[in-house]
């Protein structure tokens, strides 16, 4: 055990996911030795984290603007929506180069034991996108009940469910499949086998993920 601020920094790093006590100690000792200007830059970056990060009003991806770069890209196929649990999953899928549609970030997966139900996820926003309406937040216009007005959304032909292949992800995929199965003209698909059960998309290699996209299975379709 070290004393004072150094041990405080070690303790804080050890609280981060994927960082154990030894890794936390190495990081803290490294920061103790770096140039003060580099440490100040690191501190400033951390200080701006919450101020400079927003969430896309369309897909809920982490963004620097009101609309993320993917939703703003007119070359992307607006008829395809890939549903993922977290923004980090988008980065994994984008690295494959196999997908040119849009995304929707749920913000987690169904996990009733930990208080994560449909209302805690961005499910309503997904249904609104598929139903052909998006909240027109950009204009600031509201209705008589002070709710945002809606604008037409691109017609969606397929929703690809790319939740993690674990218990919570499978439960979420099944729920979304049932929820979306009666939308006319909509195909709902799930990423194919190739992704190991119990794993996370974050740790799947690009080749495996590419094959999973190519061989995805249909949950419902019209």
From TrEMBL:
<dbReference type="Pfam" id="PF02132">
    <property type="entry name" value="RecR_ZnF"/>
</dbReference>
<dbReference type="InterPro" id="IPR000093">
    <property type="entry name" value="DNA_Rcmb_RecR"/>
</dbReference>
<protein>
    <recommendedName>
        <fullName>Recombination protein RecR</fullName>
    </recommendedName>
</protein>
<dbReference type="Pfam" id="PF21176">
    <property type="entry name" value="RecR_HhH"/>
</dbReference>
<dbReference type="GO" id="GO:0003677">
    <property type="term" value="F:DNA binding"/>
</dbReference>
<keyword id="KW-0479">Metal-binding</keyword>
<keyword id="KW-0863">Zinc-finger</keyword>
<dbReference type="GO" id="GO:0008270">
    <property type="term" value="F:zinc ion binding"/>
</dbReference>
<dbReference type="Pfam" id="PF13662">
    <property type="entry name" value="Toprim_4"/>
</dbReference>
<comment type="similarity">
    <text>Belongs to the RecR family.</text>
</comment>
<dbReference type="GO" id="GO:0006281">
    <property type="term" value="P:DNA repair"/>
</dbReference>
<dbReference type="Pfam" id="PF21175">
    <property type="entry name" value="RecR_C"/>
</dbReference>
<keyword id="KW-0233">DNA recombination</keyword>
<dbReference type="InterPro" id="IPR015967">
    <property type="entry name" value="Rcmb_RecR_Znf"/>
</dbReference>
<comment type="function">
    <text>May play a role in DNA repair. It seems to be involved in an RecBC-independent recombinational process of DNA repair. It may act with RecF and RecO.</text>
</comment>
<dbReference type="InterPro" id="IPR034137">
    <property type="entry name" value="TOPRIM_RecR"/>
</dbReference>
<feature type="zinc finger region" description="C4-type">
    <location>
        <begin position="56"/>
        <end position="71"/>
    </location>
</feature>
<dbReference type="GO" id="GO:0006310">
    <property type="term" value="P:DNA recombination"/>
</dbReference>
<dbReference type="InterPro" id="IPR023627">
    <property type="entry name" value="Rcmb_RecR"/>
</dbReference>
<keyword id="KW-0234">DNA repair</keyword>
<keyword id="KW-0862">Zinc</keyword>
<feature type="domain" description="Toprim">
    <location>
        <begin position="79"/>
        <end position="196"/>
    </location>
</feature>
<dbReference type="InterPro" id="IPR006171">
    <property type="entry name" value="TOPRIM_dom"/>
</dbReference>
<keyword id="KW-0227">DNA damage</keyword>
């Amino acid at each position: 055990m070290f004393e004072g601020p150094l041990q405080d920094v070690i303790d804080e790093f050890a609280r981060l996911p994927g960082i154990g006590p030894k890794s936390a100690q190495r990081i803290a000792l490294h920061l103790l030795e770096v140039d003060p200007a580099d440490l100040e830059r690191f501190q400033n970056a951390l200080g701006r984290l919450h101020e400079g990060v927003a969430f896309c009003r369309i897909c809920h991806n982490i963004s620097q603007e009101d609309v993320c770069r993917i939703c703003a890209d007119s070359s992307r196929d607006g008829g395809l929506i890939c549903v993922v649990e977290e923004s980090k999953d988008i980065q994994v899928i984008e690295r494959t180069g196999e997908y040119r549609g849009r995304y929707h970030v749920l913000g987690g997966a169904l996990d009733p034991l930990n208080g994560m139900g449909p209302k805690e996820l961005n499910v309503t926003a997904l249904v609104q996108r598929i139903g052909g309406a998006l909240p027109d937040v950009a204009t600031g216009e509201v209705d008589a009940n002070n709710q945002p007005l809606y604008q037409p959304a691109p017609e969606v032909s397929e929703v690809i469910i790319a939740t993690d292949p674990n218990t919570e992800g499978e439960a979420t995929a099944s729920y979304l499949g049932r929820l979306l199965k009666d939308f006319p003209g909509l195909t709902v698909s799930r990423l194919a086998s190739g992704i190991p059960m119990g794993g996370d998309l974050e740790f799947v290699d690009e080749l495996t993920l590419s094959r999973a996209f190519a061989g995805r299975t249909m949950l419902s379709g019209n």
